[in-house]
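Data availability (excerpt). The following record was deposited with the supplementary files.
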Amino acid sequence: MFLLGHSSWSYIFSKLTGRQVKVSIPAYLALLAGVLPDFDIYFKPLIQHHTYTHSLIILLPICAVLVNRFKGLGLAFSAGILCHLVADSIVGTIPPLYPLSNFEFGISLGLPSPADTTLEVGALGLVLVVAILNGDYKLVTQSHREGIYLAIPMVSIVTLTLLFAGDNNIPLTAFAFSRKALTLITLGHATLIGIVGLAVLQGVRAVINDSRRRGQGSLGQSGEHQPLGTPLPSNTSP
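Predicted structure:
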């Protein structure tokens, strides 16, 4: 599955899991969790893609540590990580026992394929619905400091896509619009990045506004003892 589907399904499952355990997982963590298993792309050729970070032997202990350390938040974040493996096993295969075994498990519906396109674009639609219901849409419509953290999943999605295309000698522009399915997925990526980018700008706006308010507050405090326009007291003889 492409990063559009991974980040979208991660957001959905992380948010739903968080709701069940009464924890509000931030939007940036919910989007980031599902992208993390593909971080092995950053470490090529030291780590082969789709091996260690797509193995249950590796990820389950990591998720157990997250849950033990961060409780409900760790559980919600882990749900996002593990849904990456579920998604990949639907459209392709995963090596659940790597490095102990090279056994591959999956339904292999195809990538790209009508099933994958439906899952990815459909997930984006569900993200928009969930974001409206839980209030995350306000990160786009209002200035909020949390929005700036969305730069993390946004940069991850963009850089991982570029690196993967470069490592595999894929002409990204031509590939993205080579089929109808890929065109829809490409437009979905652009939509997601555009929405997240607006939220990041709102976050930057919030940080700038907070800095200005602090600066004005400092000026006000420094002038409390001698307001502007107050005449200096004249010296009088005893």
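Summary of structural features: The CA atoms of residues 148 and 201 lie 7 Å apart.
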